[in-house]
Amino acid sequence: MALPLVAIVGRPNVGKSSLFNRILGQRRAIVDPMAGLTRDRLYAEADWRGRNFTIVDTAGLVLGKERDEVPALRELRRRMEEQTAVAIEEADVILLVVDVREGVTPIDSDIAELLRRARTPVVLAANKADGRDSEGLAAEYDLGDPHSVSALHGTGSGELLDAVLAVLPQAALEPEGDRVAARIAILGRPNVGKSSFVNSVTQDQRSLVTATPGTTRDPVDTEMVVEGKKVLLVDTAGIRRPGLTRGVEQYSLLRGLRAMERSDVALVVMDARDGITAQDQHVAGYVTEAGRGLVLVVNKWDLLSPEEKEEKEWRTRLRRAFDFAPWARVSYVSALTGQRVLQPIETALAVVAERGRRVATPELNRWLRDLLARRDPPTRKGKRLKVLYVAQAEASTPTFVFFVNDPELVHFSYRRFLETQLRSAFGFEGTPVRMVFRRRGEEE
Ligand code: GDP
Ligand code: GDP
């Protein structure tokens, strides 16, 4: 199921990221801030009144150093147009944020003009309305009624989300069919070889493409059989999409994130000659945050000299760069020669099996007792953490709920220790696991 995508658009400093955080703050879900991810979040799943959607701060899609520099006006204009075009192309709803205190600036008018011509529904958020009203804005934008909000104080954000909900597309029901064993998204920067990889995989004699393109349930997917199991390569049309030059990185990233939403496992494809780039790390970070399985695919292996093919060194480098996902699986492939191209797919199938594994509660608690007998939990300000009980929750990402005397006493390092121990006892290779700490008595 693809979640609807809500893209936040607007000039710098109007309060987009504040609003983004405010919206996420509304949800009351099992949240596990993944260890080691220090980047800004710019992409997340949110829910409001029982509807789930994905929310993206499109400004944040400008990656790397660029984000820190203050662009000149012309450059800012260009970026805004790019950001808006990407949002129009991909989003189901655009949340345009303006600053009521500054009124309409020429760049705001440009954006509004682009949006008026698009068919994507727009919700206008008049931010920083800390007690002020924003009626004058409606006429100036001609984009429907503005919703006054204060990201700072939270006022108006419920009404704003109601307005977003009202224009969200109805969820498409997925028809029941033969069970798909794995849904796989293929992510990566342009030119790393994603489409070559898909071609190579589908041409491999050991894989059987089961439907001609366009006749699958979802025409953008490729359906095939590997090891007797049905596998869906999600949104291969997006990968093959040619001829996008402006904003292409943001575009492909946003589309890739959507594909990831519909997947169990993501392959993050890299170019062996380029080594590991910051964007590869970002993308793998999103996969981890979204709780999807992760396979790191180093492509163009054929271009390396024999010395450069030292897998042990690659392993070390990958571990360091993706230290937030030491459990990720790795494949070295050549889409050009077909070397090992099916391995990531087979690995993805194995990862899906891991994700589906349930550890019985008595077994989990035996493990916990042994662990506690071997090592005392830490203390903080003279108070010792007590871990009383653990159970695996029903969730597609393996999720463990620990009942403790006081969740505040769980440090980062103890959380990491528990995860390492849990993994060495029970596996879950290739997938993130979530660990939730609840105060005893808060059982639901
Ligand atoms: P972005 O660049 O559009 O993502 O903007 P930010 O979210 O980083 O916010 C820019 C500045 O505006 C920050 O200093 C925020 O604290 C401030 N800000 C955001 N929302 C509000 C609001 O509702 N009221 C006021 N007074 N300030 C706000
Ligand atoms: P995409 O933008 O990620 O879909 O990348 P493409 O599949 O279009 O590949 C970009 C370029 O890299 C093309 O010229 C491919 O022929 C080349 N390429 C892709 N995979 C390999 C590989 O494994 N080895 C070599 N030598 N070239 C490759």
Write the topology of this structure.
Layout: E1 5-9, H1 16-25, E2 43-48, E3 51-57, H2 73-90, E4 93-99, H3 106-117, E5 122-127, H4 135-141, E6 146-148, H5 157-167, E7 182-187, H6 194-203, E8 207-209, E9 222-226, E10 229-234, H7 236-240, H8 248-261, E11 265-271, H9 278-289, E12 293-299, H10 311-321, E13 329-332, H11 343-355, H12 361-374, E14 379-380, E15 383-384, E16 387-393, E17 399-404, H13 412-426, E18 434-439
Parallel strand pairs: 1-3, 1-4, 4-5, 5-6, 7-10, 7-11, 11-12, 12-13, 17-18
Antiparallel strand pairs: 2-3, 8-9, 9-10, 14-15, 16-17
Helix pairs in contact: 2-3, 2-8
The structure holds guanosine-5'-diphosphate (GDP) (2 copies).
Textual characterization of the structure:
This protein is an alpha/beta fold and 444 residues long. It folds into three domains: 5-167, P-loop containing nucleotide triphosphate hydrolases (Rossmann fold), CATH 3.40.50.300; 182-355, P-loop containing nucleotide triphosphate hydrolases (Rossmann fold); 361-439, 2-Layer Sandwich (GMP Synthetase, Chain A, domain 3). It contains 13 helices and 18 strands. A hairpin with a 2-residue loop joins strand 14 (379-380) and strand 15 (383-384). The model is unreliable at 26-39 (pLDDT under 50). The structure holds guanosine-5'-diphosphate (2 copies). One guanosine-5'-diphosphate binds at residues 188, 190-196, 239, 299-300, 302-303, 334-336.
